[in-house]
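User:
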Amino acid sequence: MLYFYERTHLEEWVETIYKRSGIRTPSDLTVETISARLGIGVTFEPDVVDEVIFDEEYAHIFINSLYSPQRRWEVFCHELCHPLRHLGNQLMLADEFRKLQEMDAHAFQFYAAIPFFMLQEMELPDHEKEIIDLLAREFGVTHGFAKCRWEQIHRRIVRGRLHQKLVRNLYSPSKKAAPRSLREQHAFYLSACGNSQAAAPSLFVTSCS
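Assistant: Predicted structure:
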C-alpha cells in the first residue's frame, strides 16, 4: 500500500537533512539528538512563549516545559523549520509573508516528527486505529497528531493510485478511442485528491482538513 505514496519536495528536503545528519531511525527522533546534530539550542521553561530566535550563525528554541513530552516534541518540530528554512525576523515581516512561513512550518512539522522514510520500514497493522496507535507510540507524538499524519499519508496513497491509473489509461492504446472517459477520470482524480501540498494540519491539532 505504501508503494503508491507520493512525497512532496519539502518532505524530500527534510529526509535529506535527516539522513545527512545521521538521523535514520525513530530512536533518533528526540529533541536532544536533533538539536545536538543540527547545532540548535533548546530551553524548556514554564509559561514561556513557544518561539525560536535565530540568525545566520545561531538558533535557540524556547518551549513551554509544562507541555507533555509528546507536545514538546511536536512544537520543537514546528519551530525547527524556521532556522533551517527561513530568513528574517517574523515581527518585521509583512503579514502575508509571515503567514507563508507559518504554513511552511506546519507542513514541515509533520514530515519531521513522523518521517515517511522511517515509517515505510515498519510493519504496519491491518487496521487504521492500530496504525495510529503504533505511530503515536513509536514516534512519540500525541494520538491526534498521529491520526492527522496517517490521514495525510492515506490521502497521498489514494492520490498516487489514481495518478498511476490515469497515466496507464492515457498511454494505453486501447484507451485512445475514449477521450470522454479519460476526461471524466481526470476530473475525478482532481476532485478526489485535491491539493496534497495543502493537506498539512495545523500545529495544535484541531482539524485534519
